[in-house]
Automatic annotation (TrEMBL):
It holds the Pfam family GATase_6. It comes from Candidatus Nephthysia bennettiae. Coiled coil: none annotated. Keywords: Glutamine amidotransferase. This is Class II glutamine amidotransferase. Residues 2-228 form the Glutamine amidotransferase type-2 domain. The keyword GTP-binding does not apply. The lineage of its organism: Bacteria, Bacillati, Candidatus Dormiibacterota, Candidatus Dormibacteria, Candidatus Dormibacterales.
């Protein structure tokens, strides 16, 4: 029941502008049990922040991040399926130790338990999403970032919107959650993808992004957002 906000910019902007949008998404939705952000600046390096409290409650974090210049950013607002997993270890995004990417998930995997033993040595929390993160990390040994993202969902099943911020600033998002659609749009020179507040209509535009243009509903699709480039939307390849 989480929300995801992914943004790339034509020129560096303050992270605080994106957190203002994220605050509205949290207020209007059902998140508030943890939040986090990952971002890349002009150097392309991936950085992240996460806190098991709500975004609204993490005043210190917002103050520390608001003036950070970014060219790409990814925000995750958490409402876990199991409230017993509200802790920092299960808060997203999960960041690769080598700094290659940060990973977020909205939804609920069905078969994460089947792989938990495989990644037991690296798991720090109890949520299904961290299993997806470790699986994605392992798949990058043999697959490119976009097909690996799709394979995570096909391996673990269940419902999923998945997004990764890659070193260099590229965002890859796989939209496949039947009850929280991802919508792509343009706003103030930004390329944006955002989940729909679990609302089966366009209320996310009416309430948060009324000036959005070039609106597109994503349905079982992969979208790539790259700073200073138009978005690319593709269909996942076959199994």
């Amino acid at each position: 029941m989480c929300e995801i906000l992914a943004v790339t910019a034509e020129r560096p902007l303050k992270l605080g502008a994106l957190l203002a949008w994220a605050s509205e998404l949290e207020r209007l939705g059902i998140a508030g049990f943890g939040w986090g952000a990952a971002w890349a600046g002009a150097d392309g390096e991936v950085h992240s922040h996460r806190n098991p409290s709500s975004l609204a409650g993490d005043v210190e974090g917002m103050l520390a991040l608001r003036d950070v210049n970014v060219v790409s950013a990814l925000v995750h607002l958490r409402r876990p399926s199991r409230l017993s997993t509200v802790q920092e270890a299960d808060t997203q995004p999960f960041q690769d130790e080598a700094g290659r990417f940060a990973f977020v998930h909205n939804g609920s995997f069905e078969r994460d338990g089947e792989l938990r033993d495989r990644f037991a040595g690296t798991l720090r929390g109890r949520a299904d999403s961290e299993v997806g993160f470790r699986l994605y990390q392992s798949l990058l040994e043999d697959e490119d970032p976009l097909p690996a993202l799709v394979r995570v969902h096909r391996t673990l099943g269940g419902t999923a919107n998945l997004c990764v911020l890659l070193r260099g600033g590229q965002l890859a998002l796989y939209a496949a959650h039947p009850h929280n659609a991802v919508r792509r749009f343009r706003l103030d020179g930004l390329s944006v993808a955002c989940t729909s507040l679990h609302s089966d209509d366009e209320s996310v535009f009416d309430l948060v992004f009324p000036e959005a243009g070039s609106r597109e509903l994503l349905d079982d699709q992969v979208i790539t957002l790259v700073p200073n480039s138009p978005p690319v939307t593709t269909q996942p390849s076959g199994n």
